[in-house]
Design goal:
The structure holds two protein chains of two kinds.
Chain A lengths: L1 E11 L2 E11 L4 E5 L6 H8 L7 E6 L2 E2 L8 H5 L2 E4 L11 H11 L4 H14 L15 H13 L5 E5 L7 H16 L3 E6 L2 H7 L2 E6 L2 E6 L8
Parallel strand pairs in A: 3-8, 3-9, 6-7, 7-8
Antiparallel strand pairs in A: 1-2, 1-4, 4-5, 9-10
Chain B lengths: L1 H5 L1 H38 L2 E5 L5 H12 L4 E7 L1 H11 L4 H8 L9 E6 L5 H7 L3 H4 L2 E4 L1 H46 L2 H9 L4 H41 L5 H7 L1 H25 L5
Antiparallel strand pairs in B: 1-3, 1-4, 2-3
Classes of the chains: A alpha/beta, B alpha+beta.
């Protein structure tokens, strides 16, 4: 369902972010993309979500050829993906309820559905008592849980989490990973980009290792081995 | 709406800048009215006086008056007979004993009958004066005042034209400057929200959904600024109106303002809404591309 075919991303002759990436991810998989900082993880995520275009190669997401989508088609495509960012990226002038509801409004869902779904999803992430709180009133872990709620509220086929625990302490990191695992168990494909060895090794899921823009390892029930 | 209030300081700054621009535009409207009234007041003081010989028959003078009144350039003609001229003279100098005594001792009335002619436009006096160059009229006419005042009248014509043109250009330039200031203020406000726009795009919001709230905020800001502009202008105009009236007696800018307040409010709202809404629309555009 997700495929990278001979994908390159070159910024200039001294900066090759991705080199000949060939990956296939099937529905329902939990895949960790690992590597040290600068390995190309975030670049791969950015290309998959249409935030940039590859220099060469093709990227497929279901029926979409992502590298060929126009600025007008991208919003429609992004409603099939839930994205969780390292820096949470919540809208600061909206409270938790409104942040999650915004994702449904963006997808054109009616208010009646929004009023039903948002509290359910917030309960799933354990924040039903924080609906009226603004991002600056939440802890890091709580903000990330709101971000996860926003990512899953439209029941996307895939959730992509780009370093979701990067700004969190170990306790909250474990909480977030557990939540992501639970979401995957419910059937959503999950792509986790991270450089945190312990998290990956505990998951015992598929691990794709990048180094200097290349795939150097791709293992089911893999481990993150530091190079 | 929620976003407009939650971004309190930013919204207030944008409204303040728009308010300044609208106050400038209101000032220009009032200034334009004042200059129009000042020019009209000056124009009203200009006329041609035609003095007839004391032997000219009154019915001939009245015929000439009728002919003048039928001319398209003539606004009105006033006939002052010799007797009326004497009465006016006596009244004017009633305090001066020497002159009053001299007038009473006169056997005959030396004052000539006259016609005072006002034109619709100051530029038309030359044509009216030409009428009196006819040889048929020469036997009745003693003098025409136009020749003495011609230079002043011509200068006034030039001033009227230049004030008209200058006022129009000034209004255009100030409107452009005001529009650009408002546009840049809104652009800066949206620049400070660029991260937010990026987040909206990342969760799949369409261009319309991203842009919509900012355009609405621009419109709300515009309407608020327009309302405040009228509320602030009213007491200022009320307080300066008496001072201006002392310079130009027929001028009452507060009356002009209050009788046109609905029209001014509509113009202000239209200008502000167009500028505010359009500026937001254009300013968001660059952030809708990845």
């Amino acid at each position: 369902m997700i495929a990278f075919q001979s994908v390159f991303k070159v910024y200039n002759s001294h900066s090759v972010a991705l080199e000949d990436i060939n990956i296939r991810i099937n529905p329902g998989e939990f895949v960790s993309i690992v590597g040290r900082s600068g390995a190309g993880k975030s670049t791969a995520i950015k290309l998959l979500t249409g935030g940039d275009k590859p220099t060469k190669g093709r990227i497929f997401f279901g029926q979409y050829e992502v590298n060929k989508l126009s600025d007008v088609e991208l919003p429609q495509f992004r409603r099939h993906i839930g994205i969780v960012f390292q820096d949470f990226r919540l809208l600061p002038t909206k409270n938790a309820y409104e942040n999650v509801a915004f994702a449904m409004e963006a997808a054109g869902r009616p208010q009646s559905e929004i009023k039903e779904m948002v509290p359910q999803v917030m309960e799933m992430v354990g924040l039903s008592d924080k609906l009226a709180n603004f991002p600056h009133e939440l802890s890091g872990g709580e903000k990330q849980r709101v971000a996860i709620a926003r990512a899953m509220v439209n029941r996307p086929e895939v959730i992509i989490a780009d370093e979701p625990t990067g700004n969190l302490d170990p306790f909250h990191s474990a909480e977030i990973v557990a939540l992501l695992k639970k979401i995957n168990e419910l059937g959503t494909t999950l792509i986790l980009a991270t450089h945190e060895k312990d998290i990956v090794n505990e998951l015992e899921k598929r691990v794709i290792t990048l180094d200097r823009g290349r795939v150097i390892r791709d293992e089911e029930k893999g481990k993150y081995i530091l190079i | 709406m929620k976003s407009f209030w939650r971004n309190g300081w930013l919204s207030a700054t944008t409204v303040a800048i728009m308010l300044l621009a609208l106050l400038v535009s209101m000032g220009l409207i009032i200034f334009s009215y004042i200059t129009d009234q000042a020019v009209a007041s000056l124009q009203d003081k200009i006329d041609i006086s035609v003095y007839f010989k004391t032997t000219a028959p009154e019915d001939e003078i009245l015929n000439i008056k009728s002919s003048l009144e039928s001319m398209a350039e003539v606004k009105n003609v006033e006939y002052i007979s010799s007797a009326q001229a004497l009465e006016i003279f006596k009244n004017k100098h009633s305090e001066d004993q020497a002159i009053s005594q001299a007038v009473n001792e006169l056997n005959a009335n030396p004052l000539e009958p006259s016609l005072n002619i006002k034109a619709k436009q100051t530029s038309q006096y030359a044509k009216i004066a030409d009428y009196f160059n006819s040889p048929d009229l020469a036997k009745y006419i003693d003098s025409v005042s136009y020749a003495k005042n011609q230079t002043a009248i011509d200068r006034l014509n030039i001033i009227v034209q230049n004030v008209g043109r200058g006022g129009f250009v000034l209004t255009l330039v100030m409107a452009l400057i005001a529009g650009l200031v408002v546009f840049n203020t809104i652009r800066l406000a949206i620049y400070s929200n660029r991260d937010e726009i990026g987040i909206m795009r990342a969760v799949g919001a369409s261009n319309g959904l991203v842009r919509g709230p900012y355009v609405v905020e621009g419109v709300i800001g515009g309407v608020t600024a327009a309302g405040l502009s009228v509320l602030i202008s009213a007491p200022i105009i009320y307080s300066i109106s008496p001072y201006l009236n002392s310079f130009i007696p027929d001028l009452n800018i507060f009356n002009y303002f209050s009788s046109n307040v609905l029209k001014f409010t509509a113009y202000q709202i239209l200008f502000a809404v167009v500028i505010g809404g359009l500026s937001s629309f254009i300013a968001v555009k660059r952030y809708l591309r990845d």
